[in-house]
Amino acid sequence: MKKIENYRGKCTGVNPQTASNGGGDNNGPKNKKGTTPPGKKKQNGYTYTRLYNHIYDAIEPRKFSGAQYAVFMYIYRQTIGYQGRSIIFKTVDVAYKTKYEPRTIDMAYKSLLDDKIIKTVDGKKKGVQINFMKSEWTPIEE
Hints:
- The chain is α+β, with helices and mostly antiparallel strands.
- The chain has helices spanning 53-59, 66-79, 91-98, 102-114; strands at 3-5, 11-14, 40-43, 46-49, 87-88, 118-120, 127-130.
- It has 4 helices and 7 strands.
- Helix 2 packs across helix 4 and helix 3 (91-98) crosses helix 4 (102-114).
- Residues 1-29 have low confidence and may be disordered.
């Protein structure tokens, strides 16, 4: 691949005309438009989900329990990792993936819902996604 340079002689990336993926935006998985979906990236042949800095900064001081963190990350992965869609939350599926008891998963789910860190969508009882409006989250008690 041929590198292109800006007017100061510094490398600015790959020339889109000579890039093998046609667009030159990055080498991640492609959606119908040929661009990488938000939150997805491919590196060394593996696709991974990015954890946005503002979300990390918001959850870090919250001192989640292990089950709460597992439920949060499961929902994050299933929504952001799959182009931001909401998911139907099934306690049994999450318990299987995280190796926690279903009762523990259900309690963690309810506490995240009560703290407004996750929210229900489309009027579905268990249709959930991450609440990106951090101002709506319950404040941290000190």
